Each structure stands twice: as structure tokens, then as C-alpha cells.
Amino acid sequence: MKQSMTLIPTLREVPADADVKSHQLLLRAGFIRQNASGIYSFLPLGKIVLQKVEEIIREEMMNAGAVELLMPALQQAELWKESGRWNTYGPELMRLKDRHEREFALGATHEEVITSLVRDEIKSYKKLPLALYQIQTKYRDEKRPRFGLLRGREFIMKDAYSFHSSFESLDEQYEKMFTAYSNIFKRCGLNFRAVIADSGAMGGKDTHEFMVLSDVGEDTIAYSDTSQYAANIEMAPVITEYVQSTENQQELEKVSTPGQKSIDDVSRFLQVNPDNCVKTKLFKADDEYVIILSRGDHEINDIKVKNLLEADLVELASAEETKNVFQCSVGSLGPIGISNVRIIADNAVKSMKDFVCGANEEGYHYINTNLERDFQVAEFADLRFIQEGDPSPDGKGIIKFAKGIEVGHVFKLGTRYSEAMNGTFLDENGRAKEMIMGCYGIGVSRTLAAVAEQYNDENGLLWPSVLTPYDLHLIPINLKDEAQSSLAFELYGLLRENRFDVLMDDRMERPGVKFADSDLIGLPIRITVGKKAAEGIVEVKVRKTGEMHEVKKEDLMEKLQDLYRSLP
After folding, report:
1. What are the Aminoacyl-transfer RNA synthetases class-II family profile domain coordinates in residue numbering (predicted)?
2. What is the pLDDT of residue 558?
């Protein structure tokens, strides 16, 4: 491709609203352009990389036994109401009405559509298992789109769904998909970890996220320093064993704490450690209030609360709700005297003695509080976030944290959707049974951004050879020079004949501009036709290492093959 005939609008300055490397470089190198907040056009270079990611995905999906189809982005509200998610999915679901006032949603995901399709077409166990996938645009009304392609309102996703007559069959497909995902991200050259995860609004259990390690990741990975254990911080169980003091209990006492609201405020004021204070938080689980207690130096994990209570939606009650229920502010809330709301505590609280807690009265706290004597707890459970330095849940090593970008997620949905939407089949005995489902998603455009985030330097992008938009960047310094022009066009034809994808910079630009754009775009190898063109000699540069080679044109093909064998 001649550069003068395509659209590669490079930028010299970093766009003001681009906060992370991938966003900055994809904009500057002319791969994408923003149309609105969280909405982007993929320009020719970006589209080529997307297609290469999709090719890898299609090959691995075929190996996993999945078949491609395409479903509508515009989805009937009735399907979402059948599944129960119309009112629970949240404001991220983009809803609209047609001219007849019928309700629709723009597809944030496709569980409802695929379930309705398969339930209408598959009636017998003989047609199961079945795995279907699509690559399509998704829409989510993110409250705060950020980081370019990493968190947008419109994005490209590969979503796959499998249907089974038994859980054993689901397990087999899950392992195939897990392997396929690992292969996809390895082939894309990504440094990633597969971590235990929460299924969120998707429903189901037994899920893994595929996280690309990156300092700009919005998710925190908890991993063992000595084993392969890794989990999203929301899902990592705490196995710390707490030892209870054997000292005698002290007498409960109410003390004045004027103006002290937070645990840090109260602990400083009373000169006690935060780990000798108890946080009391009011949560709303679906339509029920519940008190959750944790140690002062721990943070309550609402995902663990949600899973314990088997609730669809769990959220921290507002200050106004807390005031209405207990007639006190959030900073003064405590467990003593509460009888109208169930109290659940994290395991760490069970071993505490003579601790500080709120007194349900503005400006007062209790000291020397003790369980059983002063209040009752209905249930103890693991309800806090794991912390760095905690024992690894697999019993091997201690926990450390890393940041990650989620690029893939696999779920065992079970009968979550088939039960709600009457997705049944007849088994070998002629009895109706609910289909068992799996769900498997990859952020295609997010994967492109994750590669850009990991593959760059101070001069621009560094595409791995498997994803580069072109194999080679051919740059004649001065096309007005007859020797350079003749050799450049001769090589352009020869390289294409040898099945290289070539981008030739035939623009009438200064050499410095051409070289700067070449580094920015990040093709693996650059061939410069310059002052030695009359001798049939060109300069070959490896973008990643900067190594240079002067090569005669008759030796060029052999040299390129040698260099390509060593490229990542």
C-alpha cells in the first residue's frame, strides 16, 4: 500500500484528554479517532490490526468447536424482561423506543437473544452440545468512559455461548474455551494471567478473567508470590487465622468523640489502633437492609456480601437512608442495641475483644465492646478484601497485588437463563430438561489497546509481527532522485511478490517527518532507500532493537527472512 493512498493522520502533540500510553499512541499514530466520549472510529491501520486479532480468535474458536453467527444489536425488551435483567442490569443498558413505543435495548451482551434463538431451534439432546459465537459491536452507557479503547461506550466484542445436556459436558467445553483464550492471548504476545473472578450481572458461577498486566489496569489482581494462584481481588478468599486475646473483658463505656467521623479520626482521638475498632456499615441487599461489621483496618467486600446473601443487587446505604433507619449519622453507627436489622460480621471480628464501635448517637462511641455480652451477630463469614501480606488462599506463599486490564472472561452460567426463559430440551427418556449454558467473552478492541499498552517505547508503537498492520515500512528518502525512485518501486514490487505486506511512504515529505511517522506507527522492520540507491544498497532497521544493516538488493529477501525469524 502506498502511504499517499491511505488515511494515516499522525499527530505530533499528545492529545490533552489522552491519559494512558495506548490511547495517546493510537491517536497520534493515526489508528483511531474519537467521534464522541467513549466512541471511536477505527482508521485503516487500526482496522487491519482488529482484523488480525479477529483472525486469531476465529482460528482458536474453530479449534474449540465453536461456530460463528451474527445476532442483532437491537434487542427486544421482552427478552430482557423474561430473564429478569431489564430492571437489574443497571443504567449501563442503553434503552430506546421505536415509533410504535415498543421498548428495545442496544446489545450490551447477548445471553437473552442467544437463549431465545436456541430454545426455539433445539428440541432434543441429540443436538447438544452446541457452541456458537459472534464478533460484533456492543453498547454500554459507561458513566465515565476513559482510557480510550479500554473503557468505551461502544466497543467490539467476541461473545460465545455453549449449550449442554449435562454439567460434565459444560466442564469439557469450559476447559476448551479456557485453553482457546490462553492461546489467543499468547498468540497476541500479551503478558497476562487467568484469575478467579466474579460473574457480576451475567450470573452463574465458576468464572475466570484473563487479565493483561498493566499499571493502568482498573482491576487489582491478588496473586501468590510462590505459586500459580491468582484471583480478582473481589474474589480472593481470606484464610487468615485470628487469635483471640485471653485477657479479661473490660467494662463497656460510652465516651464522647465530638466531630470524629472516620475510623482514622476515632482511633487517633481515642489513641487506639484501627485494628481495635469495628466498622459498622448499613447495606441494602435487594429490598432488605443488613448490617455488616468489619475490623477497622479492613475493607468490606460487597461482592462477598452479595454472594453470601444470594442477592441480585447489593449496595451501601446512603447517609440519608442510614439516618432514617437508625436516627444517627454513618460515622456514629454501631451494633449495640440494634434489633430491627440483621447483623453479619467478617470472620476477623469474632476474635476481637474490648474494641471501639459507634454508639448510634452523634458524637459518641463505645469502648471495651465485646461480642455476646453487648450484642449478638447472626452470622460470621469471609466478607473483607484480601490484603497484601495475607496468606495465599491455596496455602502457598503470601499475597501480592498487581494491576490488570480485563480482556477476556469465561463463565459457567448453568441454568440461569434457560430456567428463566424456558430453554428446555428432551433428554434420552423424553423428559424436558433445562439447557445448561456457558458464556465466553473477549474484548476485541480492548485487546488491541492492551497490546498497544504493552508494546511501545518513547518513539511510538512496537507491534508484534503477528498483529502489525504491515510487515515492512519502505521509505525512499527522495523520490525526485531517479536512482532512489527506481529502486524503491522495484523493491515495492519484489517485496509484494514475496508475500510481504508493504507500506511505502511515497509522500513528498522531509526525511525527518517520514522517520518520525515510521517510528510512531511501529512496523517491525523499516527499509530506507537513500544515498546508496545507485549502488543497489538499502538500509534495514529493526524497529524494536534499533539494529541497522546495509543490504544489497539481491540479498534483501534472505536478510528479511532471517530478521523475521527472530521477531516476537
Report:
1. 49-464
2. 94
pLDDT at 17: 87
DSSP percent split of the chain into helix, strand, coil, nearest 5: 30, 30, 40
The pLDDT assigned to 472 comes to: 97
pLDDT score for 203: 44
What integer pLDDT is reported at residue 139 of this predicted model?
A: 97
pLDDT, residue 207, reads 87
Which residues in the chain land under pLDDT 50?
A: 201-204
Closest CA to 333 of 249, 257, 272: 257
The proportion of the chain whose per-residue pLDDT surpasses 90, expressed as a percent, equals 90
**What's the CA gap between 31 and 18, in Å, rounded?**
14
Spatial separation of the C-alpha atoms in residues 1 and 163, rounded to whole Å: 44
Q: 3-class DSSP state for residue 123? A: coil
CB-facing half-sphere around the CA of 562: CA atoms within 13 A: 9
Q: What secondary structure does DSSP assign to 48-76, as a single string?
A: HHHHHHHHHHHHHHHHTT-EE----SEEE
**What gap in Å lies between CA 463 and CA 192, rounded to an integer?**
17
> What ranges make up the beta strands (E) of 225-272?
230-232, 253-256
Residue partners of 439: CB distance under 8 A and separation at least 6: 111, 159, 160, 161, 162, 202, 204, 410, 411, 413
Phi and psi torsions of 379, nearest 5°: -160, 145
- The grid coordinates listed for 169 are 459436558
Question: Rounded CA gap, 383 and 524, in Å?
Answer: 49
Q: Enter the C-alpha cell of residue 133.
A: 459465537
> Which domains are delineated in the chain?
21-237+400-453 (3.30.930.10), 253-381 (3.90.960.10), 470-565 (3.40.50.800)
Measured distance CA(441)–CA(107) in Å, rounded: 14
Query: What per-residue confidence (pLDDT) applies to 204?
Result: 46
What ranges in 359-472 are assigned the alpha helix state H? 416-420, 444-454
